[in-house]
Amino acid sequence: MTGEIGPILITRIERSKKQARVEFICGNRVVRYAREANRALEAISQTISSPLLETASAVRTLWDEHQQMRKRLEDLESELLDHEAAQFP
Q: Which pairs from 17-26 meet CB under 8 Å and 24+ separation?
């Protein structure tokens, strides 16, 4: 009986050519997975001071800002090297 399996959660789908690989968990593992995922999401939410269901968007924004700052730092380092190089005869 399929009812004995309990809940089923698809955790990942990989598509390759004409095939698909489906990873899933079932039964009590679904509940444990959900609890662990919720704890992780709560920790992220608290760390970035964002409502729980808005953490994905907030993390994306933070990542984009990080990438922009990293690029700006690289540009400034390059400018500094050019400036320092110009100081030599």
A: none
Cα distances (angstroms) measured from residue 66 to each of 16, 40, 52, 80: 32, 21, 21, 21
Shared domain for 35 and 1, answered yes or no, is yes
Position 1 confidence tier, pLDDT thresholds 50, 70, 90: low
- Domain of 66 in residue numbering reads as 54-89
Both tokens of residue 50?
A: 């964002």
How many domains, in total, are found in the chain? Answer: 2
Phi, psi dihedrals of residue 48, rounded to the nearest 5°: -100, 10
pTM for the complete prediction?
0.68
User: Would you say 6 and 30 are in contact if contact means Cβ atoms under 8 Å apart?
Assistant: yes
d(CA 23, CA 11): 6
pLDDT at 69 over 70: yes
For 47, the 3-state DSSP assignment is helix
